[in-house]
Amino acid sequence: MSIDVTLEDHILTIVINRPEAMNAIDPQTRIALYLMWARIRADDDVHVVVITGAGDRAFCAGADLKKTMPPSESFAELLLMHNNPGNMTHGFGGTDKPIICAVNGYAMGGGMELALACDICIASENATFAMSEARIGSIPGSGGVQRLPRTVSKSNAMLMLLTGDPIDASEALRIGLVSKVVPRAELLATAHQIARRIAQNAPLAVRAIKRLVTQGSDMPLVHALDLDRYMWGLLRNTEDRIEGRTAFAQKRKPAYKGK
Known about the structure:
The chain has 259 residues and is α/β, with parallel strands linked by helices. It contains ten helices and ten strands.
């Protein structure tokens, strides 16, 4: 299999498993990732997702150019046909469940776009990030042009996009591309520690927060604040919100049900 998937304690871990190709995305892997987003949306037992790459060299080196030939379909077919797995990052927008990316080594081109589409990104000390598409006469085609300036400053985004130059983990931390940099041996454990802290919170509240951040970032502030108040009202009388307050008063761990 081009990806390995495990589910434990409400945490779904996805490992891109093509280390011999630096975990580059071939057609089989692209389809597998696309289908995985459907499972994430549908499976209520999944509360948090962690995605990483196999081996020590690379998280994902982007598209596997040796196996990715020009499509036979017209651009109109690719753009408009339903369930088209052409853009592997589109599925991220369809879930309110948090996604954590653990970058172990190279995150190049589409690999960096995959990391950008996640909600939280941490990196190992040997991580390297780059979007070098301009060097080969193309553009980042899976959301990188739009997501990078929304993640770091416009100036830092333009510097990376226009030069195609790589940056190391310390620079990625400095510009806000990643939240943490840890030794390689601690990377996945750190990602799972974060995932467990999220998974122990009330599921409805966690998903509401992600939805508010995602939708609110494209709204005028006054409209985003109205959306916050609406979502607060939806959560006000939920079983989980009452359980949270009851558990706090009784000095015990809450038992959330996602209701």
